[in-house]
What does this fold into?
Amino acid sequence: MGNVLGTRTRIPDPGLSLFPMRDSRRASALTFRIEGGEERRLMWGFYKAVLLHGLANTPAVVSGNWVGAGASVFIFAVTFLNRVKQQRSYKDAKTRRERLAATREHWKENAWHGVKWTGIVWIGLFLISLTKTVYADHLAVVADNARLAQRVRSLETSMGQLAAKNEALEQENKQLASLRTPFQEPKDSLRRRTVNLADEYANWLVGSLEDKSKPPDAFPSSADPNPSEERKAAIRKSQEFYRSIEDYYFKHFKERFVGIVREYNSKGVKTGFLENDFSQRRPYIPPAGSVMEGMDPLSQFRDLAFHVDARDHLIVF
It folds into this structure.
């Protein structure tokens, strides 16, 4: 830019307005002081640089129009002169003046002939251009369709991956939801069945022993080797009562006690002799405060419930 305008011309910052001298806000951004005639020289130098830059780029912008205009003039001139040369008056002319007179003789018809041929050529060029444009557009559409098809396939693949991720997230959410939901211990968990069976048996035994229809306890005694008939009848009724209790236990409780003890054995809980105790005799309830309280088979059976959790998993102490 400096070579075009001369070494003495200063060019303002390109980021300033096209009219830097009239823009008070931009004028303060100049890095030098402008006074008097220097202001006019700077202004015209700036406009001159813009004009030269525009002229330098003009051929690249309008070269197609110039070529078209030149081609039109050439076609018109060739057809016009060819028409003139075919005239008899032109062929018979001997001098240059006669040829010019022959050229002016039918110039309208000859000019119209040139215009027609120029139009025909331009129509042909237009058709060729139209064909090339349509073909280029077709190729562009085909290329666009190919890119769109590729994009669709890529999107389908992405959608499939997203669907798989969504399914995995849904499964994870279900698992998290199950973890957040408080666990409800089943009614038939091992420890519940243990405590319920011990309570059921204890309630039944206590109810049977406290039943008003229960005969008075009467047992044989070495102090009375020859009891009376009345005593013998009382002993017989008491023995029959306790025998019925034994029979009821073996019929309704034995297998249940033994089954639960075996479940604890399968989980690794040490049950001692509880399986033999429940198989051979009914468990008793020791009197409150006795030395055997808490050491009887039924109490030991209750303690088994502390060795498993709500999910029947073994608890290791």
Summary: Confidence is low (pLDDT under 50) at residues 1-34, 57-63. The chain has three domains: 2-105, 106-181, 190-307.
